[in-house]
Amino acid sequence: MVSPVKDQGGCKACWAFSAVACIESHLRIYFSNEEVLSEQFLIDCAPDHVGCNSTSVLKTFRTIVNDLGGVLRDSDYNPYDAKEEKCSWDPLKSPIPVVGYRRVKPNEEMMAYFLVKGGPLSAAINSASMERYNGGIDEPTDESCSPRHTNHAVLIVGFSYYKDLEKKTVIPYWIIKNSWGKSWGDNGYYYLVRGRNACGIATDVSYPYVW
């Protein structure tokens, strides 16, 4: 129920990729609807003109619901080109409706509950440790990846546990879909230790209501 990994390139519109990926997943879960939606539409047509700059996914969902009414299909808008362009929304093209959104409390047990009950979650994260990531379960320290500073947005798609038989320990972790292409990480995915707000993963979490 997770759409393919995309690549945001040199545009810092991770907020658009996280929101779109979350909506795409929820459409598949609730309607068996495999849509490919347009990040470029959000970059160009959001009234706050964030473009390739940073913003929160929560604000993105608010804009999608209150100002845009949803997100256009990729096929109904200009191809992604990693920069802000003039909005060229054809009024004959209707967006896929997004009728609401919800913020999840910064609690990782609550996040796991909503992930199981509802579907993938958009989340802010400090990307410092991701920039050094080359596979496995990442267990960064707060000193190397402060949970108080988030600068990137991702999609949490699952969670699991890893049993280290040699150390006789169990490591809980999140399964995270990123937007830096399939050549990054584990085919575009990231595994982050769960339960201690590593890199601020629980700081700003939300999901949409699709229709």
Provide keyphrases for this structure.
8 strands; 22% helix; 211 residues; disulfide bond; alpha+beta; 4 helices
Overview of the structural elements:
The protein is α+β, with helices and mostly antiparallel strands and 211 residues long. The protein is 22% helix and 24% strand. The chain contains 4 helices and 8 strands. The chain has helices at residues 14-31, 39-45, 57-68, 108-117; strands at 70-71, 96-104, 121-125, 137-138, 152-164, 169-177, 189-193, 205-210. It has an 8-stranded mixed beta sheet with strand order 1-2-8-3-5-6-7-4, sandwiched between helices. The two termini are 16 Å apart. Belongs to the peptidase C1 family. This is (African queen) hypothetical protein. Residues 1-209 form the Peptidase C1A papain C-terminal domain.
Our estimate of the beta-strand percent is 15-25%
Strand order of the largest sheet: 1-2-8-3-5-6-7-4
Report the helical percentage: 10-25%
Largest sheet: 8 strands, mixed
Helix count from the secondary structure assignment: 4
How many DSSP-defined strands?
8
Q: Look at the structure and give the mean pLDDT.
A: 96
Kindly report how far apart the N and C termini lie.
16 Å
Elements, N to C (H/E): HHHEEHEEEEEE
Estimated structural class: alpha+beta
Rounded to the nearest angstrom, the radius of gyration is 17 Å
Low-confidence stretches: none
Quaternary structure type: single chain
Give the overall shape: globular
GO molecular function: cysteine-type peptidase activity
Protein name: (African queen) hypothetical protein
Domain Peptidase C1A papain C-terminal: 1-209
Family: Belongs to the peptidase C1 family.
